[in-house]
Amino acid sequence: MLLLRLPTIPRPLLWPFSLSSASPRFLTQSRKFGFCAVLPSRPIIMANTEGSPQEIRSGDGAQNDGEREKGKGGDDEVIIQYVVLRRDLIDTWPLGSVVTQGCHASVSAIWLHKDDEHTAKYCAPTNLDSMHKVTLEVKGEVQLVNLSEKLKAAGIAYKLWIEQPENFPTCLATKPYPKSTVSPFFRKLKLCK
Predict the structure, then answer these.
(1) What is the pLDDT, as a whole number, of residue 75?
(2) Total-model pTM
């Protein structure tokens, strides 16, 4: 028998669940609860290795969403990373190629600022499953370069990804920041769709 804990319910529901029916890629082991299956829909299903269900009390096991937010940026501030892609490339390149450009910029921005306090909080083991990233779009290269210059002038750390060997900018990603610090620079941009 397994425990199903949903963030909006104060006490977990006991739910009959067979470990054999869980996909092995979602299985992990916890010192406190034994085998755990984390499903993509975000509930946490747990099985006690001794065979008896255990109740998760407040403060044990997974944090609720509010506690997770507080732990990220201090002062209840969400730590966020912005990724900006070019719409002209989205319309002309294969989708996978454009997504790859965003991934390159995002990873580079994090790696270049790996010793930064906000990056450390963003990448902390307790926050890995709840990172906040916003993907936006600009019309083309000119707008991307203008945004880059605007961020540079304001002292905002970012990575402008330059595709090689073509040597032109394809996307931009900020290092992780508290949302209130960087959101004003991105308010006029549209969500990438």
Answers:
(1) 55
(2) 0.62
